[in-house]
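Aim 2 progress update. The chain analyzed this quarter is reproduced below.
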Amino acid sequence: MVALSTSGLQGTRGRPTVTREDVEGMLLDQRILIEMRLQTVKLEIVQHVIEEFARLRDFISTLVPPSGGISISAAAPVVNEQNIWDNPHKAGEGSDERSPHNDNNANEGEM
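Predicted structure tokens:
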């Protein structure tokens, strides 16, 4: 805390007098000190987080082997699922449309 200088300032009853400017100056000094401390704490937190992420990266690198240039698509080919509309058993159920797969007379060539 900033000490208040009272030299040369005497009130009407002999007590030290503090002016508004003195109080505003002290408050400004306190605010500056608080902001400096806040910035210091913020910097310490950022440095700590950076260090922890570096440690985490190092730990993960011990668990996961480095990439050998193999893409995921080459390592695991994608299998396309059959569309339900391509399935003759599902498409013909409950519909008025005739499918050659469900039609017993499809080979006879109806006209």
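The longest helix spans residues 20-63. Residues 19-65 form one domain. These observations will guide the mutagenesis experiments scheduled for the next reporting period.
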